[in-house]
Sequence to fold (130 residues):
Amino acid sequence: MIDKVAWIRLENGRILSTRSHGKSVYYIPGGKRESGESDTDTLVREIREELDVTITSASTTHVGTFQAQAHGHPNGTTVRMTCYAADYEGTLTPSSEIAEVIWLTYQDRGSVSPVDQLIFDHLHEQALLD
Ligand SMILES: Nc1nc2c([nH]c(=O)n2[C@H]2C[C@H](O)[C@@H](COP(=O)(O)OP(=O)(O)OP(=O)(O)O)O2)c(=O)[nH]1
Fold:
Protein backbone atom coordinates (compact mmCIF):
# COMPACT_ATOMS: atom_id res chain seq x y z
CA MET A 1 0.00 0.00 0.00
CA ILE A 2 1.43 3.36 -1.05
CA ASP A 3 0.27 6.04 1.38
CA LYS A 4 -0.05 9.46 -0.21
CA VAL A 5 -1.49 12.80 0.80
CA ALA A 6 -2.89 14.91 -2.03
CA TRP A 7 -3.96 18.50 -2.54
CA ILE A 8 -7.37 19.06 -4.08
CA ARG A 9 -7.22 22.59 -5.41
CA LEU A 10 -10.36 23.60 -7.27
CA GLU A 11 -10.80 26.96 -8.95
CA ASN A 12 -13.65 27.84 -11.30
CA GLY A 13 -14.72 24.21 -11.55
CA ARG A 14 -11.26 22.97 -12.52
CA ILE A 15 -8.72 20.94 -10.57
CA LEU A 16 -5.02 21.69 -10.37
CA SER A 17 -3.00 18.80 -11.82
CA THR A 18 0.55 18.11 -12.87
CA ARG A 19 2.40 15.94 -15.34
CA SER A 20 5.92 14.71 -14.73
CA HIS A 21 8.56 14.58 -17.45
CA GLY A 22 8.27 11.46 -19.57
CA LYS A 23 4.70 10.65 -18.43
CA SER A 24 1.45 10.99 -20.33
CA VAL A 25 -0.92 10.76 -17.37
CA TYR A 26 -1.77 13.71 -15.11
CA TYR A 27 -1.49 13.44 -11.32
CA ILE A 28 -3.10 15.38 -8.55
CA PRO A 29 -0.25 17.08 -6.62
CA GLY A 30 0.97 15.36 -3.47
CA GLY A 31 3.26 12.61 -2.36
CA LYS A 32 4.24 9.89 0.03
CA ARG A 33 4.20 10.24 3.77
CA GLU A 34 7.58 9.97 5.50
CA SER A 35 7.75 8.20 8.85
CA GLY A 36 6.27 10.19 11.68
CA GLU A 37 4.68 12.83 9.48
CA SER A 38 1.11 13.98 9.96
CA ASP A 39 -1.15 14.45 6.93
CA THR A 40 -0.58 18.20 7.07
CA ASP A 41 3.21 17.80 7.39
CA THR A 42 3.29 15.64 4.26
CA LEU A 43 0.99 17.95 2.35
CA VAL A 44 2.96 21.10 3.16
CA ARG A 45 6.32 19.46 2.36
CA GLU A 46 5.26 17.82 -0.90
CA ILE A 47 3.42 20.85 -2.27
CA ARG A 48 6.38 23.09 -1.49
CA GLU A 49 8.67 20.62 -3.30
CA GLU A 50 6.43 20.29 -6.34
CA LEU A 51 4.94 23.76 -6.75
CA ASP A 52 6.96 26.13 -4.54
CA VAL A 53 3.92 27.39 -2.64
CA THR A 54 3.03 27.20 1.06
CA ILE A 55 -0.15 25.41 2.06
CA THR A 56 -1.95 27.27 4.86
CA SER A 57 -2.07 24.54 7.52
CA ALA A 58 -5.11 25.98 9.32
CA SER A 59 -7.16 25.89 6.11
CA THR A 60 -6.83 22.15 5.36
CA THR A 61 -10.18 20.35 4.99
CA HIS A 62 -10.44 16.60 4.40
CA VAL A 63 -12.20 15.94 1.08
CA GLY A 64 -12.06 12.16 1.18
CA THR A 65 -9.73 9.16 1.07
CA PHE A 66 -9.60 7.09 -2.09
CA GLN A 67 -7.69 3.98 -3.14
CA ALA A 68 -7.08 2.11 -6.38
CA GLN A 69 -4.38 0.37 -8.41
CA ALA A 70 -1.24 2.52 -8.33
CA HIS A 71 -0.43 3.88 -11.76
CA GLY A 72 2.81 2.50 -13.18
CA HIS A 73 3.17 -0.19 -10.52
CA PRO A 74 2.64 -3.98 -10.80
CA ASN A 75 -0.94 -5.23 -10.58
CA GLY A 76 -2.09 -5.45 -6.99
CA THR A 77 -0.13 -2.44 -5.74
CA THR A 78 -2.60 -0.06 -4.20
CA VAL A 79 -2.23 3.66 -3.69
CA ARG A 80 -4.28 5.38 -1.02
CA MET A 81 -4.72 9.11 -1.47
CA THR A 82 -5.83 11.08 1.59
CA CYS A 83 -7.12 14.27 0.01
CA TYR A 84 -7.33 17.77 1.40
CA ALA A 85 -8.54 21.09 0.11
CA ALA A 86 -6.41 23.98 1.37
CA ASP A 87 -5.54 27.61 0.73
CA TYR A 88 -1.98 28.54 -0.15
CA GLU A 89 0.45 31.43 -0.27
CA GLY A 90 2.86 32.15 -3.09
CA THR A 91 2.90 31.73 -6.83
CA LEU A 92 2.47 28.28 -8.35
CA THR A 93 5.86 27.46 -9.89
CA PRO A 94 6.54 23.90 -11.10
CA SER A 95 9.71 22.22 -9.84
CA SER A 96 12.18 20.76 -12.32
CA GLU A 97 10.56 17.30 -12.16
CA ILE A 98 7.24 18.69 -13.39
CA ALA A 99 6.73 19.18 -17.11
CA GLU A 100 3.28 20.72 -17.00
CA VAL A 101 0.85 22.32 -14.56
CA ILE A 102 -2.71 22.24 -15.85
CA TRP A 103 -6.28 22.86 -14.70
CA LEU A 104 -8.44 19.86 -15.69
CA THR A 105 -12.20 19.28 -15.89
CA TYR A 106 -14.24 16.08 -15.72
CA GLN A 107 -13.83 15.77 -19.48
CA ASP A 108 -10.17 14.95 -18.84
CA ARG A 109 -11.06 11.90 -16.73
CA GLY A 110 -9.51 9.60 -19.34
CA SER A 111 -6.11 11.26 -18.91
CA VAL A 112 -5.68 10.71 -15.17
CA SER A 113 -4.61 7.74 -13.01
CA PRO A 114 -7.17 5.19 -11.72
CA VAL A 115 -7.32 6.67 -8.21
CA ASP A 116 -7.72 10.14 -9.65
CA GLN A 117 -10.65 8.88 -11.72
CA LEU A 118 -12.41 7.99 -8.44
CA ILE A 119 -11.62 11.45 -7.10
CA PHE A 120 -12.89 13.09 -10.30
CA ASP A 121 -16.15 11.07 -10.00
CA HIS A 122 -16.61 12.23 -6.40
CA LEU A 123 -15.91 15.88 -7.17
CA HIS A 124 -18.16 15.83 -10.23
CA GLU A 125 -21.02 14.28 -8.22
CA GLN A 126 -20.57 17.05 -5.65
CA ALA A 127 -20.78 19.60 -8.50
CA LEU A 128 -17.31 20.86 -7.62
CA LEU A 129 -15.66 19.78 -10.88
CA ASP A 130 -17.15 20.92 -14.21
N1 LIG B 1 1.02 12.22 -6.42
C1 LIG B 1 0.22 11.36 -7.05
N2 LIG B 1 0.57 10.07 -7.16
C2 LIG B 1 -0.29 9.24 -7.79
C3 LIG B 1 -1.48 9.71 -8.33
N3 LIG B 1 -2.12 8.67 -8.93
C4 LIG B 1 -1.39 7.58 -8.75
O1 LIG B 1 -1.64 6.44 -9.15
N4 LIG B 1 -0.26 7.91 -8.05
C5 LIG B 1 0.69 6.90 -7.77
C6 LIG B 1 1.77 6.82 -8.85
C7 LIG B 1 2.59 5.76 -8.28
O2 LIG B 1 2.09 4.51 -8.72
C8 LIG B 1 2.30 5.87 -6.78
C9 LIG B 1 3.49 6.05 -5.97
O3 LIG B 1 4.38 6.73 -6.67
P1 LIG B 1 5.87 6.46 -6.41
O4 LIG B 1 6.04 5.50 -5.29
O5 LIG B 1 6.48 6.17 -7.69
O6 LIG B 1 6.15 7.90 -5.88
P2 LIG B 1 7.43 8.71 -5.86
O7 LIG B 1 8.60 7.83 -5.58
O8 LIG B 1 7.41 9.60 -7.03
O9 LIG B 1 7.14 9.49 -4.52
P3 LIG B 1 6.52 10.88 -4.24
O10 LIG B 1 7.39 11.91 -4.89
O11 LIG B 1 5.14 10.88 -4.79
O12 LIG B 1 6.54 10.97 -2.74
O13 LIG B 1 1.39 6.94 -6.61
C10 LIG B 1 -1.78 11.07 -8.23
O14 LIG B 1 -2.79 11.56 -8.68
N5 LIG B 1 -0.91 11.86 -7.57
